[in-house]
Write a structure and sequence with these properties.
Length: 193
């Protein structure tokens, strides 16, 4: 692969998606994932596009198939765990994610999704704890800081959440979820400046 391949491929995926050609965007993202199997950025984008294309249930099934084909790819397995969490299959998601964390303790996405599992279980302290571990594992990940900020905001700790969200936006000014949680935090504080 040549230098800049990832950025070029992700730009292609973005342009295809913006043009409304979801099947081509999914295919391009899948090709990038095959070329860069350890890239959380690529697998995350592929997973998001695939979910839009086939729906939540088929999304989980497809990621399960891919995970079975590549049992050592912890990035893929973290995405599979995240898909399970998004589908509300929290116990199964937690089991998959714990295996990822055991196999690859530095895999920040797995910690992020464990935070999602705990948030969905109604355990804000657990969500914050796992989200902090995600930031420790991937301090340059805007999404890790976003998950932490969201967990803190949802726990009523708006000021702490805003600090994490400012870091998320500094790392990726285009991160829509960070901006969304920032708005929620200011709204809860009744700070409309």
């Amino acid at each position: 692969l040549y230098p800049g391949y990832l950025d070029a491929q992700m730009e292609l995926v973005h342009r295809l998606d913006r043009a409304g050609d979801l099947p081509a965007a999914v295919a391009a993202a899948r090709a990038a994932a095959a070329a860069l199997p350890a890239s959380a950025r690529v697998w995350g984008r592929y997973s998001e596009l695939l979910r839009r294309q086939v729906g939540p249930a088929a999304h989980v099934d497809r990621l399960r198939e891919l995970a079975a084909e590549d049992p050592d790819n912890t990035v893929l397995h973290a995405q599979f765990g995240g898909a399970l969490a998004d589908a509300g299959r929290l116990d199964e998601a937690a089991a998959v994610l714990r295996r990822v964390i055991e196999a690859a303790p530095g895999e920040g996405e797995a910690y992020q999704y464990m935070g999602v599992v705990e948030a969905r279980r109604g355990n804000p302290a657990g969500a914050i704890r796992w989200s902090r571990r995600a930031v420790e594992a991937a301090p340059r990940s805007s999404f890790a800081h976003t998950r932490l900020g969201g967990a803190l905001v949802n726990a009523g700790r708006e000021d702490d959440g805003l600090a994490a969200l400012r870091e998320a936006v500094a790392l990726d000014p285009q991160n829509p979820t960070a901006h969304q949680f920032t708005g929620i935090a200011y709204n809860r504080k009744r700070d409309y400046k």
